[in-house]
Protein backbone atom coordinates (compact mmCIF):
# COMPACT_ATOMS: atom_id res chain seq x y z
CA UNK A 1 0.00 0.00 0.00
CA UNK A 2 2.82 2.42 0.87
CA UNK A 3 4.49 1.87 -2.53
CA UNK A 4 1.22 2.51 -4.38
CA UNK A 5 0.68 5.73 -2.43
CA UNK A 6 4.23 6.88 -3.22
CA UNK A 7 3.64 6.14 -6.91
CA UNK A 8 0.36 8.08 -6.93
CA UNK A 9 2.04 11.05 -5.26
CA UNK A 10 4.86 10.92 -7.82
CA UNK A 11 2.40 10.80 -10.71
CA UNK A 12 0.49 13.77 -9.31
CA UNK A 13 3.66 15.80 -8.76
CA UNK A 14 4.91 15.11 -12.29
CA UNK A 15 1.53 15.97 -13.83
CA UNK A 16 1.55 19.23 -11.90
CA UNK A 17 5.08 20.02 -13.10
CA UNK A 18 4.08 19.42 -16.73
CA UNK A 19 1.12 21.79 -16.32
CA UNK A 20 3.12 24.38 -14.36
CA UNK A 21 5.83 24.34 -17.04
CA UNK A 22 3.26 25.04 -19.78
CA UNK A 23 1.57 27.83 -17.82
CA UNK A 24 4.96 29.37 -17.01
CA UNK A 25 5.76 29.52 -20.73
CA UNK A 26 2.51 31.43 -21.32
CA UNK A 27 3.25 33.74 -18.38
CA UNK A 28 6.88 34.18 -19.51
CA UNK A 29 7.85 33.02 -16.01
CA UNK A 30 11.31 31.69 -16.80
CA UNK A 31 12.25 31.15 -13.14
CA UNK A 32 9.40 28.65 -12.68
CA UNK A 33 10.53 26.83 -15.82
CA UNK A 34 14.10 26.79 -14.48
CA UNK A 35 12.97 25.40 -11.10
CA UNK A 36 11.26 22.43 -12.78
CA UNK A 37 14.36 21.44 -14.77
CA UNK A 38 17.43 19.69 -13.43
CA UNK A 39 20.74 21.49 -13.95
CA UNK A 40 21.78 18.73 -16.37
CA UNK A 41 18.51 18.71 -18.35
CA UNK A 42 18.74 17.88 -22.04
CA UNK A 43 16.06 18.67 -24.59
CA UNK A 44 15.14 18.63 -28.25
CA UNK A 45 12.26 20.93 -29.11
CA UNK A 46 12.67 20.48 -32.86
CA UNK A 47 15.84 22.51 -33.37
CA UNK A 48 18.47 20.08 -32.14
CA UNK A 49 19.94 19.04 -28.81
CA UNK A 50 19.93 21.54 -25.95
CA UNK A 51 21.90 21.13 -22.74
CA UNK A 52 21.04 22.87 -19.48
CA UNK A 53 18.10 25.01 -18.34
CA UNK A 54 19.44 28.22 -19.86
CA UNK A 55 19.67 26.69 -23.35
CA UNK A 56 16.06 25.46 -23.07
CA UNK A 57 14.86 28.86 -21.84
CA UNK A 58 16.81 30.67 -24.56
CA UNK A 59 15.10 28.58 -27.25
CA UNK A 60 11.65 29.15 -25.74
CA UNK A 61 12.34 32.89 -25.58
CA UNK A 62 13.53 32.94 -29.21
CA UNK A 63 9.93 32.17 -30.13
CA UNK A 64 7.81 33.47 -27.27
CA UNK A 65 9.45 36.90 -27.02
CA UNK A 66 8.50 37.50 -30.68
CA UNK A 67 4.78 36.75 -30.52
CA UNK A 68 1.73 37.86 -28.60
CA UNK A 69 -0.46 35.78 -26.33
CA UNK A 70 0.22 32.05 -26.18
CA UNK A 71 -1.59 29.10 -24.70
CA UNK A 72 0.05 25.72 -24.23
CA UNK A 73 -2.76 23.22 -23.69
CA UNK A 74 -1.73 19.93 -22.11
CA UNK A 75 -3.76 16.72 -22.13
CA UNK A 76 -3.77 12.94 -22.06
CA UNK A 77 -0.87 12.77 -19.63
CA UNK A 78 0.56 9.30 -19.01
CA UNK A 79 3.20 8.86 -16.30
CA UNK A 80 5.17 5.70 -15.48
CA UNK A 81 7.16 5.69 -12.25
CA UNK A 82 10.01 3.33 -11.47
CA UNK A 83 11.60 4.10 -8.11
CA UNK A 84 13.31 7.50 -8.30
CA UNK A 85 12.88 7.90 -12.05
CA UNK A 86 9.85 8.31 -14.27
CA UNK A 87 8.76 8.93 -17.83
CA UNK A 88 5.79 10.89 -19.08
CA UNK A 89 4.00 11.59 -22.32
CA UNK A 90 1.54 14.42 -22.78
CA UNK A 91 -0.28 15.94 -25.71
CA UNK A 92 0.44 19.61 -26.34
CA UNK A 93 -1.40 22.08 -28.51
CA UNK A 94 0.48 25.35 -28.41
CA UNK A 95 -1.32 28.35 -29.84
CA UNK A 96 0.60 31.53 -30.68
CA UNK A 97 -1.07 34.80 -31.62
CA UNK A 98 0.71 37.52 -33.53
CA UNK A 99 2.23 40.36 -31.55
CA UNK A 100 0.40 43.66 -31.12
CA UNK A 101 -3.06 42.52 -32.16
CA UNK A 102 -2.20 40.94 -35.51
CA UNK A 103 -4.67 38.42 -36.87
CA UNK A 104 -2.16 35.67 -37.68
CA UNK A 105 -2.04 32.52 -35.57
CA UNK A 106 0.34 29.59 -35.48
CA UNK A 107 -0.05 26.41 -33.53
CA UNK A 108 1.35 22.93 -33.32
CA UNK A 109 -0.12 19.61 -32.34
CA UNK A 110 2.43 17.42 -30.63
CA UNK A 111 3.66 15.32 -27.76
CA UNK A 112 6.05 16.01 -24.93
CA UNK A 113 8.12 12.96 -24.01
CA UNK A 114 9.81 13.69 -20.69
CA UNK A 115 12.08 11.90 -18.26
CA UNK A 116 12.04 12.80 -14.56
CA UNK A 117 14.22 12.04 -11.55
CA UNK A 118 13.59 12.45 -7.84
CA UNK A 119 16.35 14.78 -6.65
CA UNK A 120 16.64 16.88 -3.51
CA UNK A 121 13.03 16.25 -2.53
CA UNK A 122 11.42 17.08 -5.90
CA UNK A 123 10.65 15.54 -9.27
CA UNK A 124 12.85 17.35 -11.79
CA UNK A 125 12.74 17.19 -15.57
CA UNK A 126 15.96 15.67 -16.89
CA UNK A 127 14.89 15.35 -20.53
CA UNK A 128 12.21 16.81 -22.81
CA UNK A 129 11.66 15.77 -26.40
CA UNK A 130 8.88 17.48 -28.34
CA UNK A 131 7.42 15.51 -31.22
CA UNK A 132 5.43 17.76 -33.54
CA UNK A 133 2.66 15.92 -35.37
CA UNK A 134 1.36 18.89 -37.35
CA UNK A 135 1.27 22.67 -37.46
CA UNK A 136 -1.21 25.25 -38.66
CA UNK A 137 -0.33 28.75 -39.81
CA UNK A 138 2.85 30.46 -40.86
CA UNK A 139 5.74 30.25 -38.41
CA UNK A 140 7.55 33.06 -40.25
CA UNK A 141 4.60 35.48 -39.97
CA UNK A 142 4.34 34.99 -36.21
CA UNK A 143 7.98 34.69 -35.21
CA UNK A 144 9.82 36.32 -38.10
CA UNK A 145 12.07 33.26 -38.44
* Biggest sheet statistics: 6 strands, mixed
Going across the major beta sheet, what is the strand order? Answer: 2-1-6-5-4-3
The tally of beta strands, per DSSP, is 6
Distance between the termini: 52 Å
Reading off the top of the CATH hierarchy, the class is best stated as: Alpha Beta
Output the number of helix runs: 4
In the CATH hierarchy, the architecture is Roll
What portion of residues is helical? Answer: 25-40%
Strand content range: over 45%
Summarize the structure in words:
The protein has a single domain (2-143), classed as Nuclear Transport Factor 2, Chain: A (Roll), CATH 3.10.450. It is built from 4 helices and 6 strands. Helix content is 34%, strand content 46%. The longest helix is centred in the N-terminal third of the chain and has 26 residues, at 2-27. The model has no long low-confidence stretch (mean pLDDT 95). It has a 6-stranded mixed beta sheet. It is elongated. It is α+β, with helices and mostly antiparallel strands. The chain has helices at 2-27, 30-36, 53-64, 139-143, and strands spanning 37-44, 49-51, 70-82, 85-97, 105-119, 122-136.
Amino acid sequence: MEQELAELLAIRAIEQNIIRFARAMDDRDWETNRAIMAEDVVADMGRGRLEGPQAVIDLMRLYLDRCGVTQHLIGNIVVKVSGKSATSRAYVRDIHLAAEGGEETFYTLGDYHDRWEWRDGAWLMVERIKHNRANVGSISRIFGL
